[in-house]
Amino acid sequence: MNERKFERLKNQWLREIRAGMRIKEMTMLAPYQQIIGMGERALPFLFRELRTKPRYWFWALESIVCENPIPEESYGDMRLMTEAWLGWAGTRGY
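The structure corresponding to this sequence follows.
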């Protein structure tokens, strides 16, 4: 159930993203906010997404876990930001 809901919301979010949208605009779209609303139930799916096809899930992750493992010098580098979150996930059993 949770995985289907996540996939539905993720696909809806991807359809609503438009070229030239700022990250803040993308993360304010209703499907993205509903993924955040799933809380910790969304974490395994978000980490799976980061492992397979990284997108801008960092705002959702930080909103759900109330932490941000990304070092300041890594901001703007999708690969380093993804590595930071996957490292965080690995130390917590995700």
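The mean pLDDT is 96.
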